[in-house]
Write a structure and sequence with these properties.
Blueprint lengths: L6 H4 L2 H8 L4 H4 L1 H18 L1 E14 L4 E4 L4 E6 L6 E2 L4 E5 L5 H17 L7 H4 L12 H15 L6 H49 L5 H71 E3 L4 E5 L8 E2 L4 E6 L5 E7 L12 E6 L4 H4 L2 E8 L9 E6 L19 E12 H14 L1
Antiparallel strand pairs: 1-10, 1-14, 2-9, 3-5, 3-8, 4-7, 5-6, 7-9, 10-13, 11-12, 11-14, 12-13
Length: about 425
């Protein structure tokens, strides 16, 4: 056995096993990996933005909200004339309720009234003959108004060219022509008498001179004077005839004026009666006919079917306008209000539409009130550039009274800045 042992011979098998064992790579590279993870986390704190948020209650507002169409009476929905989400025009009929009156006949009467009113703008009452009123018997509660109006219509037709008033006016005009002709004859007769009187006057003057010279007897002069007086009497009689003719003409003119006033009064009564009938028809339409208040898309409040029983005041349709502008009114408290500035981004989560399913609306602060309200809150107006479209691409249907929660992003700092800020505060302490 040799006197000296090698290095390996001095080590036991256990020691050799421990020395020859190669650790797992994670143990060998652990420090490096830990350093890389820490470096990655620090890098992420530099990249990740952690914004400051101010939460407040808000409500959605629109300048032109959807209009609700309600039933004005209780009864059956007799006819439904539109489909859900159909585009409609202003005053378009959506449907009509059950009534004692026939809708088609009421609509026919309304069209005639509108055409007649338009035609009477130029006092063209001859239109009543060219466009006679339709004969209707199914107007229900409007039938009495229709009959009363027909009486005024018949009286008004008497004022037209072929009516009694116009014929009487023509007769009076003819009388005036006759009186004018008689007066012209009287004027001519008066002129002749005046000329004859002038000749008799000259003859009398000559004989009067002879009588003064006692060439003729006074009795003979009286004969010429008698002739002159007769001419004077004839002249006065002619003047009386002319005056009588003028009086008769004036009386005829008064009759024409009275007749014109009667015609004018009748026209006025007819027009008032026409407007009253129009008002009654419109009142019936408002009660039984459902119309669109403006252009837009019709949205059913619930599933509707014809002959369905509808209660008074029940909401049936929404009319969503084609163009409208939406914005949000945020009521913020004093805490953190100084950090809010115009142009900051706002996330609005509508209560009726869960954000995890529908997403949230994005807005921009456009106005901040300087004066608090009674509840010591400040009004912040938020514009909605994408209207009611959420970040999920879904559109929220606007209804009056929609409430939401607004989150105003006042400062979008890095996570690294926040951590270092916290460390600085701890160090200062």
């Amino acid at each position: 056995m040799p006197d000296t042992l090698t290095h390996n011979e001095l080590l036991t098998e256990e020691v050799q096993e421990v020395i020859s064992y190669r650790p797992h790579w994670i143990v060998r590279r652990g420090n490096t990996i830990f350093l890389l993870i820490v470096s990655l986390l620090l890098a992420l704190t530099w990249v990740i933005q952690y914004p400051d948020i101010i939460s407040a209650s808000t409500r959605l507002v629109t300048l032109n909200p959807p209009k609700l169409v309600n039933a004005k009476t209780e009864g059956k929905l007799l006819k439904l004339l539109v489909a859900n989400e159909q585009q409609v025009k202003k005053d378009q009929t959506l449907g009509y309720m059950e009534s004692t009156a026939n809708y088609g006949q009421v609509l026919q009467l309304q069209n005639w009234i509108n055409e007649t009113i338009a035609g009477l703008q130029d006092n063209n009452y001859a239109l009543l003959v060219k466009n006679p009123i339709p004969k209707l018997s199914g107007l229900g509660e409007l039938q009495i108004n229709y009959q009363e109006f027909q009486n005024q219509l018949e009286l008004t037709k008497q004022t037209l060219t072929s009516g009694y008033y116009q014929q009487k006016r023509n007769a009076l005009q003819k009388d005036l022509e006759y009186l004018a002709s008689l007066r012209a004859n009287s004027e001519q007769q008066k002129l002749l008498i005046e000329q004859n009187k002038q000749l008799d006057q000259k003859e009398y003057d000559a004989y009067e001179s002879l009588a003064k010279d006692k060439v003729i007897a006074p009795l003979e002069l009286n004969q010429y004077k008698s002739k002159l007086i007769a001419k004077e009497q004839s002249l006065k009689q002619v003047n009386v005839q002319i005056t009588s003719s003028d009086i008769n003409s004036h009386s005829k003119q008064k009759e024409i004026l009275d007749l014109s006033k009667q015609v004018s009064d009748q026209h006025q009564q007819f027009y008032s009666s026409l407007l009253d009938l129009k008002s009654q028809v419109e009142k019936w339409m408002q009660q039984y006919v459902l119309t669109a208040p403006e252009d837009g898309k019709v949205m059913f409040v619930s599933s509707l079917q014809e002959n369905e029983l509808i209660s008074n005041g029940q909401g049936l349709f929404y009319i969503q306008p084609k163009q409208t502008k939406f914005y949000a009114e945020v009521m913020a408290g004093q805490q953190g209000l100084g950090k809010v500035k115009t142009g900051q981004r706002v996330m609005i989560k509508v209560v009726s539409y869960p954000s995890n399913e529908f997403g949230y609306l994005t807005g921009v602060v456009s106005y901040i009130s300087n004066i608090p309200n009674r509840r010591d809150s400040f009004l912040i107006k938020v514009d909605l550039p994408k209207s009611l479209e959420t970040n999920y691409g879904k559109t929220i249907f606007f209804r009056n009274g929609l409430t939401a929660r607004a989150e105003i992003i006042t400062d979008s700092r890095r996570l690294f800045d926040r951590l270092t800020g916290q460390l600085k505060q701890i160090w200062k302490r």
